[in-house]
Amino acid sequence: MEQFEHISVDDAKRLINEQGAVLADIRDDSAYQQSHVPGAIHLTNQSLMALLEEVAPETPVIVMCYHGISSQSAAQYLLQQGLDAVYSLDGGYEAWVKQADSNDEKR
């Protein structure tokens, strides 16, 4: 993959469940601490190297931000760092929460 791909919430959940994709939340610390998707890692400048060292290059990584804009550049950066399959979550955390609310799931 030379370019990150966009991914919907449904497809992201499927990729996480079926292929063990990593969900990386790049929102600021306050937002992440207040609420985040269970299992999502908080990807910051400080945790970036750990992610790159601990995640196998072939493991899919889904990048999540607030609304799906900032995650695009972060996803492309992760590809440039050697990861093979990186996705930007369309609609970001807000889309995830909206779908969870509409499905009456707990966050």
From TrEMBL:
Its EC number is 2.8.1.1. One of its GO terms (molecular function) is thiosulfate-cyanide sulfurtransferase activity. Keywords: Cytoplasm, Transferase. Transferase that catalyzes the transfer of sulfur from thiosulfate to thiophilic acceptors such as cyanide or dithiols. May function in a CysM-independent thiosulfate assimilation pathway by catalyzing the conversion of thiosulfate to sulfite, which can then be used for L-cysteine biosynthesis. Belongs to the GlpE family. PANTHER family: FAD-DEPENDENT OXIDOREDUCTASE, THIOSULFATE SULFURTRANSFERASE GLPE. This is Thiosulfate sulfurtransferase GlpE. The gene is glpE.
